[in-house]
Amino acid sequence: MNSATVRNLLVRGMLAGLGAGVLALIVAYFLGEPNVDKAIGFEAAHAPAHEHEVELVSRSLQSTAGLATGVLLYGVAFGGIAALVYCYALGRVGRFTPRATALLLSGSALVVVYLVPFLKYPANPPAVGNGDTIGKRTTLYVLMMLLGVLLAVAATILGKRLAPKLGNWYATLAALAAFALAIGLAYAFLPVINEVPSDFPATVLWRFRVSALAIQLTLWGTFGLVFGELADRLFNPRPATATAAQPVGAPS
Amino acid sequence: MAQHVAPPTATTPVIPAKLPLKDIAPWAVFFGVLMLILLYFVGAEQGATSVVSGEEVHEWVHDARHLLGFPCH
Fold it and tell me: What are the pLDDT digits (tens) for B12-71?
């Protein structure tokens, strides 16, 4: 029975991730792609030697089917992982309803797997980044993600330990403060990477990064709401009558 | 004023019981690894490291990689 619940939640998480990926894809296409194109325009005008000799995948495919493949797989993969974490977190993190747990989890995931690495190593458009340092940059980025996850787990355990002594409110604040401090220390000690060409247009860089952030907000926001709804329906099946769904205080 | 009182079903949400770890573990191990492999192919394959030779995977997910924040060439 419980194993079936886990499977059920996993399937729902991947579906919610796919749905969230579709919305994120729309944001990526309409907000992100114009900046990618501008950056590629800058690249073509300033450093023709760095261009690929043979275009393996055309720009029109990269910005549509290629973008869709990447964003949707990302949504499904993170949806599945989040659903598995959800199975463990439900009832263990605190007394939260299925929907509240889903929203709490997706918010934490946004911070931990995206915001924490992003603030130190932000997303870069094409033409920014030296190809020779890709190994170092990838290692640092993954390290930052892992560190975010591990520190978030540690902070959650700390919060749970402190709760009987300090009460839920102050235990949560203390855990958040410890998390922020540890992330701050990591930011201070990990190497800085800045490979933005000095004449790269600042507005393109700014808009690219804001659009990258918008994609993630859309993805995780949608995921939290949709997955919460799907999980809630698994645990609290709806009665056949929907009279209780009337908005409270609606004019009669 | 009676309309402002929420129906009792909405005020007593059911908090599900904890799922035992031994039920989660098999799913978590198998699907966790599978999902991480997917993320690897979207985020890093043919960049810092390559499992498949060539540039096709990198070029295909190129725009997604940039916009999702992964380091890319």
Answer: 667 888 999 999 999 999 999 999 999 999 998 888 888 888 888 999 999 999 999 999
Q: What are the φ/ψ torsions at residue A116 (nearest 5 degrees)? A: -65, -50
Pairwise CB contact (< 8 Å): B69 & A123: yes
Return the domain boundaries, chain A: 1-49+60-128+198-236, 129-195
Residue spans of the domains in chain B: they are 30-73
The ipTM of this complex is 0.88
The model's pTM is: 0.89
The string of DSSP codes covering A25-55 is: HHHIIIIIHHHHHHHHHHHHHH-GGGS-SS-
Residue with tokens 């009792």: B8
Collect all residues of chain B within an 8 Å Cβ-Cβ radius of residue A111: none
Amino acid at B1: M
With beta carbons less than 8 A apart as the criterion, state whether B73 and A134 touch: yes
User: Residues A152, A112: contact at Cβ < 8 Å?
Assistant: yes
